[in-house]
Amino acid sequence: MKTLTAPDKTGELLRAGQVLSVSGNVLIELTDNTGKTYPPRSLIGINDLGPFGCDMQLIITAVSGSTQYELIADILKIKGLSVEYSGAQREYPAFYKRRPFQHEAVPFGTALINEKTLTGGTTGLSIDLANMFNGRPTSKCAITVAGTSVNLDMGISSAAFDFDAEAELINSRMLLCAVKVSGANTLSQAVLFVGDGGFANYSTYTLQPLGVTPDGWTILGKIAVGADFTSGSPAFTGNNRVRLRLVATANWSVSDVFISSVYVLPSPLPTVMLSFDDGYAEHQWLAEEAEKRGLPISFSIARDFIDSGADFLTSSQLANLINHKSGLFEAINHSTDNNNFSGIGASRYLDNVIKNRDYLKALGATEDAANCHAYVGGFRDAGLIAGLKAAGVISCRAVGPMNKKNNNTLIALQGKTSDTLYDLQLTALLSNAIDFATVKSNVINTATGTGLAIIGGHTLKAAADSTSWVKGYDSNNGILNLLDWLAYQRDESGWVITKWTDWYKDVLYGKYPMAL
After folding, report:
1. What average pLDDT does range 267-279 have in this prediction?
2. Is position 134 within any domain?
3. Which end of the chain is more exposed for a tag (fewer CB within 10 A), N or C?
4. pLDDT score of 216 more than 50
5. Are residues 206 and 242 in the same domain?
6. Integer Cα distance of 298 and 207 in angstroms
7. For 127-161, how does the pLDDT look when each residue is reduced to its tens digit (9 = 90+)?
8. What distance in Å separates the CA atoms of residue 278 and residue 348, rounded to the nearest whole number?
9. CB 237: neighbour CB atoms within 10 A?
10. Per-residue pLDDT for 80 more than 60?
11. 34: domain CATH number?
C-alpha cells in the first residue's frame, strides 16, 4: 500500500491484467505501450482502474488530502482458476470495507423508523439484530392482529432523513431492498414514497420482486430508472420524509416482517460480452482482429461443425484459439449439433451437451468454459435447466434479445442458485435486421442499466444477411466498426469487455459485489 499527499504526483507501470485500487481523490493520466495518450481520469473515493489488455504508464496526481493506492494482480483473469477459488477469493485493498450497499433511501434498522400502519391490524416495530441483511440490523414489524388491507406502511413520520450525495441521484439509479416474511403472506410489490414532511410534494417508486436469496430474503428492486409518479416538486437534497409500502397478494395475516434499508445503487459497471456461435472459419480472422484491440470473445462451439468443411474451423484451428497465448478467447458449449431441445427432447439434448463438454475439454477448454452453455435456438424449459444444473453446467445463454435482463446486482446477491444465470439474454444478435447504430443503442441501454450486455453473432461475409455481418468496415453492419467502438468504450469510458467465464467469476466472487 502506497500513500500520496496532495499536490504530489508519481508514476507507475500498470501491467496488462493488473488493477489500480485507489482510495482518495486523484487524477490519472494514461499512456499505452504504443505511446497513445488518453484523456485524464478523475477517481474520487474507493475505485478500481483496469485491467487493460496491454501495459499502461500511469501518472497519479493527488488532488486533495491523502490518497492510498496499490497495484494488484487481477486474479480473476488467471486461466484455469477454479470456480470455488479453493477458498482464496480476491484480496481486496486493506482500506476497502466490504459493504455492497451504502446509499440509503430508507434507513430501516435504525431508530429513525418510527411509523407503521396496517388498517384493521395491530403491529409492533423494533430494531432486529438477529435477522441481519448486508451485515446490518433490519426493522421488524410484528403483526399480532391480522389486518383488513394488503398495504403495510413503514417509515419516518417527518422530514428527518438526509440523503447522501449518491442517494440524491435516486431518479437516475436502480433501487433495491430485501424483505423476509413469516407466515402465509406473499409480497406482490413495494412502493417507496419520498417527499417533504407532509407529502405535499413527493415521488413514488415501485419495486418488483426479483428473486429470493439462498437464506430466504425476497429481493425487491426497481430496474428502470426514474420515478413512477410525482406530485408537486419534491427535492431530494436536505431532509426527506420516506415511507415504504409493502403490498401483499392478500390482506396481511399474523406474521413477522423484516425489512432491510432501501438502497440507491451506484451506476453499474458497464460490461459487454461477445459471443459467436457454431465455429465458422471466419472466426479465426475475427479472433485476429479482436486480439489487435485486446478484446476477448467467447466462441460458442458445436462439435459436429468442426472439421466439416471449408466454412468451419478445423479442430487444430479451434485448439489454437482455445490455447491462444493472449488468453483472450474461450470455447463454450453449444451442444454437439444444431438440434434444439424442442426437436430432440431433454434426454438426448443433455447427452449432446455432455459429449460436447468432453470434446472441448480435450482440446484445452477450461472446466468452466465447457460448462457454459448456449441453448440451441434458445429453446429450454424448467426441466431442461434442472438437468443442466445437475450435470454441472454453471450458466446458460438464450437468444432474446431482451434488454435489461442480465442483472449483475441480482445475480451477485443470489449466487450460483440465481435463475438468471441460466437465462442470460442477448442484447443484440448480428444480422441484416439490426444496424450498427441500433446495436450501440441497445448495448448502451443495457450495459449502463443493469451491467451486462451480450452481443451474439454467427458468420461474417462480404455483405450482411440473415445470419451475418460484414467482414470488415461498414457503417451499417461492419464488425470492425463494432470492435473499434467497444475498444473505445473500454479505453475512454472504463467499460469492461469480458469473456463469459471471467464475467461469471467476477459477478459471483469479485468486482460486482464490490461495486454494488
Report:
1. 90
2. yes
3. N
4. yes
5. yes
6. 34
7. 999 998 877 899 999 999 999 999 999 999 999 99
8. 19
9. 9
10. no
11. 2.60.120.380
pLDDT of residue 36: 77
Shared-domain flag, residues 338 and 456: yes
Nearby residues of 359 by Cβ (< 8 Å), 6 or more positions away = 303, 336
Residue 296, preceding peptide bond in cis (omega within 30° of 0)? no
Sign of the Cα torsion 357, 358, 361, 362 reads negative
For 499, the grid coordinates are: 469473456
Say how far apart CA 199 and CA 232 lie, in whole Å.
9
Question: How many whole angstroms separate alpha carbon 100 and alpha carbon 208?
Answer: 20
For residue 185, the enclosing domain spans 104-264
d(C-alpha 311, C-alpha 490), whole Å: 32
In the chain, how many domains are there?
3
Most confident of 75-89, 429-443, 501-515: 429-443
| One domain, residues 242 and 329 | no
Flag whether 477 is in a domain.
yes
Residues in the chain: 516
| Strands annotated E in 281-345 | 297-301, 329-333
> Is the bond preceding residue 270 a cis peptide, omega within 30 degrees?
no
Distance CA 433, CA 467 (A): 9
In one-letter notation, the amino acid at residue 37 is: T
* Predicted model pTM: 0.70
pLDDT given at position 404: 52
pLDDT level of residue 323 (50, 70, 90 thresholds): very high
